[in-house]
Design a protein that fits this description.
By secondary structure, this protein is an alpha+beta fold. The chain is built from 14 helices and 26 strands. The structure holds adenosine monophosphate.
């Protein structure tokens, strides 16, 4: 049998890993869960935490916890976690490594190959960063596919009739829409559009702003200056948002949020769904504008669409379904859990690469136009930066195109090549994604032919080369927004750092040694609860009798939940104890 390739959805908020077995794609379950929150943290003892435990500690230790790292992928930036700096790739690698272990535990053998999904609208730098994260995690990323495409594969694998689908994917941090044609097992993406910085996190932020404004009005306190209170408000805002998907009103209560001028501040306010929908209206409108751009890109109109597939947790927001119904006149599909179909589609793609028996073929497109600049005419005037598109938006992947250019000066020895992404006729109004020089050209009159080839691979990564036609002299680059790219040494250092965090730099086998908190060999939620208990015990001597009683009761409840293996009781009690400790410490 071929080596197993896993399918991974590396989400802004949550991640999943899936596999195809007996012709069926399914999400791998771990500790009775299918979803791993994309949150990474460092605990009191310097151990790495990934998933729910990290998310729980975010409230108490925001400075030791990182979430929504996907939003920073591809940027030349870093985050600080427990006083150490990490590049976004390293944090993503920690999440990937955890998913790798989950899959290895399930199949009982080491795994090192994966298909990872990325938003269709991810730029080249973001794709490169994702691939690097895979490498750091010890995974060979055999293919990256677009998230909406993966979702279409997941649905399309079961379709027999020809259909045109619109995949509307709104996650925590990104929005994508794709128009997909499914016919006789061929999934063909006709067009894609989206926004890399639009998602449920923005909805949360609207509620956070609403709560902060209320605190400022009511008490004159600027909550932005109190990081722990802000972390609590952030959690309260997301909870309120989730509840508003099912209820028309929510009551938001956060007791002892902070102390201001000697007084405790309690937050208590109601938010209605109608008011919330007004807060997020501009975002929803922007997504619908993108839907129309994607339709236009596919040369279709709304009535040509047979089905709408909802992907991403944020599509549970009722107004989204309503607005799509208004636009298209029928109900969107969401029978496959919108959080899971992307990873399941990635596993289907993995199985296809592996030659497993799956009756589907995938044809994907690029959501961007790529080109270069040249001396030309723009708006009736000579202009040195006229945009020359080479690979057009919605071209089928892989795509390889060559264009000829000419030197403009006699004896010109070098040419500077700039690569842009965008559609504006003025190259400078597009995004410059790469630049290089080709030097040592022949000493000939102007008009020396330079051919330029843009090659966009199946992963959506762009390879560029320029060649002096007469001599064959060539220069090529892989577009990487050089600043954020790891060189080999940096990659291997990052790999070691991440391995070290998992406590396995002794080279032992990853699949049986890198569990979170493997030393105790117990559930991460239990280890986290025990840490919280020891923290609470340290406080017992310094607090009032009343607080002491609260602490003791909660410690007892947590211990009972651990003994009874009561996961949901443990979560509630741990959250309560976290809140009390936060209040006592602040
Ligand atoms: P994803 O990136 O696909 O995992 O989507 C995560 C986003 O979906 C986060 O912003 C969540 O807060 C949001 N989300 C999850 N469940 C719901 C829900 N029931 N209603 C609204 N948003 C949700």
């Amino acid at each position: 049998m071929n080596e197993i390739i896993i399918g991974i959805d590396l989400g802004t908020t949550n991640s999943e890993v899936a596999i195809v077995e007996n012709g069926q794609s399914h999400i791998i379950t771990f500790e009775n869960k299918k979803i791993l929150p994309s949150v990474v943290g460092i605990d009191d003892e310097g151990h790495v935490l990934v998933g729910e435990t990290a998310r729980n500690q975010y409230l108490v230790y925001p400075d030791r916890t990182v979430k929504s790292i996907k939003r920073l992928m591809g940027q030349d930036t870093h985050v600080v976690m427990a006083d150490k700096t990490y590049q976004p790739q390293e944090i993503s690698a920690i999440i990937l490594k955890r998913l790798k272990t989950i899959a290895e535990d399930y199949v009982g053998q080491p795994l090192d190959k994966a298909v990872i999904t990325v938003p269709a609208y991810f730029s080249d730098a973001q794709r490169q960063a994702t691939r690097e994260a895979g490498e750091i995690a010890g995974l060979n990323v055999v293919r990256m596919i677009n998230e909406p495409t993966a979702a279409a594969l997941c649905y399309g694998a079961a379709q027999s009739e020809a259909k045109r689908m619109l995949v509307y994917d709104l996650g925590g941090g990104t929005f994508d829409v794709s128009i997909v044609n499914i016919d006789a097992g061929v999934v063909e993406v006709l067009s894609s559009h989206g926004d890399n910085h639009l998602g449920g996190d923005d909805f949360d932020q609207q509620i956070i702003n609403y709560l902060s404004d209320h605190l400022l009005d009511q008490y004159g306190v600027n909550v932005d200056l109190h990081s722990k209170a802000l972390a609590r408000i952030t959690r309260a805002a997301e909870n309120a948002k989730l509840r508003l998907s099912d209820e028309p009103f929510v009551q938001i209560d956060e007791e002892y949020l902070l102390e201001y001028e000697g007084n405790p501040i309690h937050l208590s306010i109601e938010l209605s769904r109608v008011d919330y929908e007004e807060m997020i209206q501009d975002y929803i409108n922007a997504t619908l504008d993108a839907v129309h751009i994607a339709l236009k890109g596919a040369k279709l109109i709304a009535s040509d669409i047979d089905e709408i597939i909802l992907v991403g947790g944020s599509t549970r927001t009722p107004i989204i379904r309503e607005r799509l119904f208004d636009e298209f006149g029928f109900e969107p599909h969401s029978e496959i859990n919108p959080d899971l179909c992307v990873a399941m589609g990635a596993a289907i793609q993995a199985a296809m690469i592996n030659g497993q028996n799956i009756d589907t073929v995938l044809v994907d497109v690029t959501p961007y136009t790529y080109g270069t600049s040249a001396l030309g005419e723009l708006y009736g005037q000579n202009y040195p930066y006229m945009y020359v598109p080479i690979i057009h938006k919605n071209s089928v992947l892989p795509s390889r195109k060559t264009e000829a250019f000419y030197t403009v000066h006699d004896g010109q020895e070098s040419v500077n090549v700039s690569i842009y992404q965008g559609e504006d006729p003025d190259a400078l109004a597009n995004v410059q994604i790469g630049e290089f020089n080709i030097e040592g050209l022949r000493d000939v009159p102007a008009g020396n032919v330079i051919t330029m080839t843009l090659d966009l691979d199946l992963n959506g990564i762009l390879h560029v080369s320029a060649r002096e036609k007469a001599s064959g002299k060539e220069k090529s680059i892989v577009i990487n927004n050089a600043i954020s790219r790891f060189d080999n040494e940096a990659l291997s250092n990052a790999k070691q750092r991440v391995q070290h965090l998992f406590g396995q730099n002794d080279g032992s086998r990853a699949w049986d040694s890198d569990h979170e908190n493997s030393a105790q060999n117990e559930k991460p939620s239990v280890s986290a609860a025990r840490q919280l208990i020891s923290k609470a015990e340290n406080l017992l001597d310094t607090v009032s009798n009343e607080d002491k009683e609260d602490l003791i009761n909660l410690i007892e409840t947590i211990n009972n939940c651990i003994d009874a293996d009561d996961d949901s009781g443990l979560t509630t009690a741990t959250e309560q104890l976290t809140d009390v400790i936060y209040y006592l410490e602040s």
